[in-house]
Amino acid sequence: MLILLGHGAIDLVAPTSARAELRNRVFVGTFLGNYAEVGDYFSISGSTSRSSSSGSLYLEKAIAPRSSISIYAGLQRISSDGDGASGWDNVQLNFKQTLVWLERQEFVLSVGPSIELPAGDRRIGAESHPREGFEMLFDKGFGDLPASAAWLRPFAIEGGGSWQGKLTGAKDDYVSGYIELEYSFGYLADHAGGFHLIRGLHGFTPHVDFDYSQYLAAHRNPTLPSFELTPGVAWLNSIFEVNVGAHFGVNGFASHPDAVALVWLLGVSYDELIPALKWTPFR
């Protein structure tokens, strides 16, 4: 399957850097550290609320100019009436393949399979069966808008969707997706023309994320969809990222147990710090 994806890729402009940029635009990505571009990236992220807290590690390594592999692992703590449980969640492995890279239109589309290994602690609700899945991610900036709409150029949209199903045990299909709208102050100052900001604001990108998730088949009892909203602000450049937001459940079926949670992320494109790590085994 990975070979078919590699041969079927449409590489109009191949990405060459870790946290790849289109016209000097750097996309925010998700609060797990995942984004559509292929790169060498590491992040630590987490969430904190009244009844639970969690942390996660995300590591991605480019293995070719258009391909990468990544690993994700999470740690959770759940509290209930003074008692609680903590432990590691399952480990997820992903492959990412860039299918479309349009520099002038600031558009990236990537897809790839994933597998989740049941290595987590059952006390915090970790899945007891392996899962397979598939994910699609895209980024779209608006730097190609005409000069008459220059103030709209810093806007960008990121999004994606995924499906996961159990390999063993009772049938259990899980789908999720997200859309993120962001506005880069740095892009406004450097590429919109005629706009002047104090230097300290150049790295900031306010954004708002809308998330959807649902079990379409959960032991023959489909659940209602969960809708969640996360406004936040990121400070980032081609090397570092700091992202902080507040997570709200839009409906009564939100996946997070509390109405509000603080979410955060610290990320780094590590090959920009150590150039030797830009090495890829495949060309």
Task: Summarize, please.
The protein is mainly β and 283 residues long. The chain is 6% helix and 52% strand. It has one domain (2-278): Porin (Beta Barrel), CATH 2.40.160.40.
Unreliable residue runs: 1-18
Shape: globular
User: What series of H and E elements makes up the topology?
Assistant: HEEEEEEEEHEEEEH
In DSSP terms, counting alpha (H) and pi (I) runs of 4 or more, how many helices?
3
Describe this structure in words.
Strands 1-2-3-4-5-6-7-8-9-10-11-12 form a 12-stranded antiparallel β-barrel. The chain is globular, with a radius of gyration of 19 Å. The protein has a single domain, classed as monomeric porin ompg (Porin), CATH 2.40.160.40. It has helices spanning 2-7, 185-191, 270-273; strands at 41-48, 52-64, 67-80, 83-102, 107-117, 131-141, 155-166, 172-183, 204-218, 226-236, 240-249, 260-268. Helices cover 6% and strands 52% of the residues. By secondary structure, it is mainly beta. The protein has 3 helices and 12 strands. The longest helix has 7 residues, at 185-191.
